[in-house]
Amino acid sequence: MDIETARYISNYYHHFFNEKENIAYRHLNSIFKLRDEPENSPRHNTYKNKGWITTDYEVLELIKNGEIEFFLNTAKRILKENKDEIFLNKCSKCKKLARTPKAKQCRHCDNKWF
Predict the structure, then answer these.
(1) Which of 6, 78, 86, 95 could form a disulfide with 71 if both were Cys (CB 3.0 to 4.6 A apart)?
(2) Mean pLDDT over residues 81-109, rounded?
(3) Would you state the pLDDT for residue 65?
(4) In whole angstroms, how far apart are CA 49 and each of 6, 26, 56, 104, 112?
(5) Within a 13 Å sphere around the CA of 15, how many CA atoms are in the beta-carbon half?
(6) Closest by alpha carbon to 74, among 4, 26, 16?
(7) Sequence ranges of the domains in the chain
């Protein structure tokens, strides 16, 4: 699986994330937003207090190899467990993944299927 497919599954089928994956996803987003903030800043403390940044060992294990590895592993699990409910909207002409599950035009070759 490539990262484009993994991101597609994570973006459009995130309701299949388990509890730990949801926490990891929120943690990754929060760390991204706080990338230029010092750890003792008020904003950083707010994120910690709200639980958007976690110290849960199991969650941190999911993201220890970086966000790309996390998305690839999570998407593989979701696809394996929910194969019948995942629709990979691929272009009939170039066979590449469309931008969304409901897209009717290929962003790669401009093929239309509406």
Answers:
(1) 6
(2) 94
(3) 95
(4) 30, 14, 14, 43, 48
(5) 4
(6) 16
(7) 3-81
